[in-house]
Amino acid sequence: MCLKRVDIQGFKSFGDRIKLELHSGLSVVVGPNGSGKSNISDAISWCLGEQRASSLRGSRMEDVIFAGSDKRKAVGMAEVTLTLDNTAKLFSLPYGEIAVTRRLYRSGESEYLINKVPCRLKDIQALFMDTGLGRGAYSLIGQGKVDEILSSRPEERRHIIEEAA
Amino acid sequence: MCLKRVDIQGFKSFGDRIKLELHSGLSVVVGPNGSGKSNISDAISWCLGEQRASSLRGSRMEDVIFAGSDKRKAVGMAEVTLTLDNTAKLFSLPYGEIAVTRRLYRSGESEYLINKVPCRLKDIQALFMDTGLGRGAYSLIGQGKVDEILSSRPEERRHIIEEAA
Amino acid sequence: MSSQFTTAFQEINGNFSVVFQQLFGGGGATMSLTEGDTLTCGIDITARPPGKKNQNLSLLSGGERALTAIALLFAILRYKPSPFCVLDEIEASLDEANVNRFANYLSRTSEEVQFIVISHRKGTMEQADTLYGVTMDEAGVTRLLSMSLEEKPDRKRLA
Amino acid sequence: MSSQFTTAFQEINGNFSVVFQQLFGGGGATMSLTEGDTLTCGIDITARPPGKKNQNLSLLSGGERALTAIALLFAILRYKPSPFCVLDEIEASLDEANVNRFANYLSRTSEEVQFIVISHRKGTMEQADTLYGVTMDEAGVTRLLSMSLEEKPDRKRLA
Ligand SMILES: Nc1ncnc2c1ncn2[C@@H]1O[C@H](COP(=O)(O)OP(=O)(O)OP(=O)(O)O)[C@@H](O)[C@H]1O
Ligand SMILES: Nc1ncnc2c1ncn2[C@@H]1O[C@H](COP(=O)(O)OP(=O)(O)OP(=O)(O)O)[C@@H](O)[C@H]1O
Ligand SMILES: [Mg+2]
Ligand SMILES: [Mg+2]
After folding, report:
1. Is B7 helix (H, G, I), strand (E, B) or coil?
2. Is the Cβ atom of A112 under 6 angstroms away from ligand 1?
3. Where are the alpha helices (DSSP H) in chain B?
């Protein structure tokens, strides 16, 4: 089991901090329409380095920061941390556990951290490249997107094989 | 109730002639994946005058003619007839019942008939214009297409109101 | 043209906000005309599920978007019922509670408009007056099973 | 590059046809390289559900397309398992029988790959080792419900 924990705060509908502890085997997330399930998958994809606001269903990146509700005010920062188990040395870093953090402030400023040490977006994207989780990742399938593997044009399909090669 | 019957023969997966008798109220069509449910809705939209093969999930219009199966050969013609009740004078024709037929042969030749009398495609399209069933019809929603009402650009949404105006 | 368009727009917009509230059990939705004269302008849509802030349509969830689109469709049909309407699995992304609200609304509206609905969902099947089974017992060839005309309890009146 | 690509392509293609047959209970699927050298060519896909003729992918039904795409995804994961995999309602258009085949396959594969699956379907929920509930009891704010670690009977071995 690789992904041990997901911490989300101020990202999309997560007005309060939540901590998702994962276990081995098959994890299934359930809940009513609009309750925040796809927002969890957006949080994971954002933390892995997703740069296109449209892939996160927004028009500007600020759309991912909690905008408030009827009873709450908007907040100023979105933060997501993925805690990964690296005992199988899947990632080229000398740690047994890796915590990847991404922050975005309303000012537009971003921060990236690996095990609480500031780094650049490039470092995070390099970490996940060629693992199936990088850009063009086949292992993150958003809602309504399963068809895209088939419906892209023949020359677009080759990147799926290249990512795995 | 307006649509009384749908007769389909040689259209898509309808290797045998089928007759769908409709009743008033809510009709619900059920069945396993790939059994031919959406093909019924394609047959209706084709008979109403749909000219784009891609809206019928094909690449050429010949794709709508029964192509055969493991045990059957392909056929040479697709034919669909919609029998409509016109006692409420919804359509500008002097008949109490209107049967609209469309045929396509492998040769590429098409035939259109109203109450068994040959006519042109234009006559069929004129019959259904401004009723909500014409081109840009809001009352035929294909599988996975419900989102299109919202996702089109603002200037595209106006045709929905114009069709109903 | 433009006065016909304006009348249609205003009526449909009024229906849209009523139907949206019925389907979502609250909240609000509205359409507005973009810049330009009524012959060329576009239409903006805002939707606000109950208890939430007004947001960009694209931030709605899969189910919320489908339900908003369904509300708009019903709003248009209320203004101008079409002779019949064919809907292919439009409620696929709704949860149980929303499917039941949708199926109830559909059943009430089917007194004015003839609906032919393709569905896998229990809530929708339960509201059927007539159920049609489609099968491929011979691979590759579609056959219709005999219809079962359900004697629906008169709950329609109650819906 | 090109020999790595060719090996990956051949292995994934082999997996694709095996997994397709398992998910559909028969039929066949395959990928082929379009014209041009291995550095620029595209990939064509043909899929044939059991008992049917080879046809253009676009003529497949909604459920058949989704199941074919799922078969390709599993074929790639079999060749190169990724550290984890997040799937958001990918089985929404499948009927009961196909959901159960999919959920069985998922459960078997989850011994090699960690899956986090968002779903509304009963067949998928039943295969979960851990179920996470998401709610908005305060409107507009997502909260997690306590997990229920299901004691799954050892049916995984039986699947
Ligand atoms: N920046 C934000 N601030 C507050 N709320 C947000 C923000 N971005 C998105 N949301 C809210 O999140 C909700 C959508 O959540 P999500 O897409 O995760 O739902 P879901 O559980 O996947 O539902 P479904 O089952 O319909 O797919 C929307 O109602 C939207 O208003
Ligand atoms: N010209 C044709 N000749 C023979 N079969 C065809 C033809 N065109 C399409 N088909 C077949 O029709 C089937 C698709 O049927 P359809 O899309 O109606 O399924 P469906 O019942 O809507 O399924 P789902 O529940 O998955 O949406 C495909 O398997 C395809 O092979
Ligand atoms: Mg969702
Ligand atoms: Mg279908």
Report:
1. strand
2. no
3. 37-47, 121-128, 148-151, 154-164
C104 reaches B (C-beta below 8 A): no
Count of residues for chain C? 159
Amino acid letter, residue D67: L
Q: Residue A33: list chain B partners with CB under 8 A.
A: none
C110 vs C114: CA distance, rounded Å? 6
Cβ-based burial of B68 (10 A; exposed 0-12, middle 13-18, buried ≥19): middle
Q: Is B131 in the pocket of ligand 2 (CB under 6 A)?
A: no
Residue-wise pLDDT tens digits, B6-31 = 999 999 999 999 999 999 899 999 99
Measured CA to CA, the distance from residue C24 to residue C50 in angstroms comes to: 7
**Burial profile C106-128: b = 16 or more Cβ within 10 angstroms, e = fewer:** bbbbbeebbbbbbbbbebbbbbb
Q: Is A88 exposed, middle or buried (0-12, 13-18, 19+ CB in 10 A)?
A: exposed
Question: How far is residue C82 CA from its own chain's centroid?
Answer: 14
Mean pLDDT of chain D: 89
pLDDT digits (tens, 9 = 90+) for D97-125: 999 999 999 999 999 999 999 999 999 99
Measured distance CA(B64)–CA(B42) in Å, rounded: 9
